[in-house]
């Protein structure tokens, strides 16, 4: 009998911890941070030992991980995206294509760069639909930001082919997929730039922080100028000579960088354990009737901290979610703030309403923009339909065989005893 109907739940113990990153904290993080304090150097651009700074070492690590030539440590994933866009020369009058399912920061970064975000559909991978991307290209389109959402790699072959054919800049948003890959290549190294986040909800954390990587010296030099309005004062030679211009202060502190170094050294171990956990559960529910597993373009490259499956419609997804939670497996849907919420375009109020910090001279109404992009809450029906019938279960690298089996048993129990699945084809 289902727990919701008075039966015994599959699981009564707490589910997984909420964070992947901070559960890995140990003496390694402590030693890295204490080393910074002992050196009494918490500002990166102190005039001695620039190349040995923690931030420089973190940049070197990510250049190596992504097989890129340049890295730029910044104070957030959003800052990484903005720096990449400005570095690539994206600005007023330009359109940048983004998916309907991503954190609002992706669209916000486009606006901060003074360009206009164009929102397109996702497909059953929950990442950008390549055909929707191509259909949205106009004469004003200058870039695309594929987002490797919830650790799932985008369909990079198709996206890159379309972008190259239309001569568009590709900026990968890897905020939610640090440690992922696509066909054996690390995410972040495919486009003109790759952007990472080290915020606490991510695979590795420095509290706040981010990284931009690229193989293009001019893009890196311009991003460096933009990330620090005073960069020329610190005696830092850019990768190539570019004219200076007004920037922000997106610098990363040495304490953040030290924590990021310690955490990033654990990526492969964490992702390897996550892979093992997800594979066990996938193998256990492959044959369950009535549910459809999320399509992952490259399962070997999946970061694997999220298990997603679809029910035939939104009503059945909500009911399945409720029954699964009663069996002791917390999960999320679009309806309960556990799955989509702030990551879905319908909740990007200031984007949909074309609202800037002031009414005047926004990216949409500035003299440089000649396009006429329009937004509405129903503009991406396929995305809403997919998200509406999706159920997501958070996974964690600490999960045991027993934890995995509980998830398998609970999903099977709900599927076998619930009218939700039995009537799926009615």
Structural summary, described in words:
The strands form three sheets. The chain has a seven-stranded mixed beta sheet with strand order 1-9-8-5-4-2-3, with helices on both faces. It has a domain at 27-266: Aspartate Aminotransferase, domain 2, CATH 3.40.640.10. The chain is globular, with a radius of gyration of 22 Å. The protein is built from 14 helices and twelve strands. The chain is of the alpha/beta class and 426 residues long. α1 (27-39) packs antiparallel against α8, α2 (54-66) packs parallel to α8 and α3 (77-87) packs across α7 (217-227). The two termini are 23 Å apart.
CATH fold call of the domain at 27-266: Aspartate Aminotransferase, domain 2
Derived from helix and strand composition plus strand pairing, the structural class reads alpha/beta
The helix fraction, in percent, is 25-40%
Counting DSSP H or I runs of 4 or more residues, the number of helices is 14
Please count the beta strands (DSSP E, at least 2 residues each): 12
- Cα end-to-end separation: 23 Å
Quick check: average pLDDT?
A: 95
CATH class of the domain at 27-266: Alpha Beta
Strand content: 5-15%
Rg from C-alpha positions? Answer: 22 Å
Shape: globular
What is the topology, as strand order, of the major beta sheet?
1-9-8-5-4-2-3
Q: Name the poorly predicted regions.
A: none
CATH architecture grouping of the domain at 27-266: 3-Layer(aba) Sandwich
State the CATH superfamily name of the domain at 27-266. Type I PLP-dependent aspartate aminotransferase-like (Major domain)
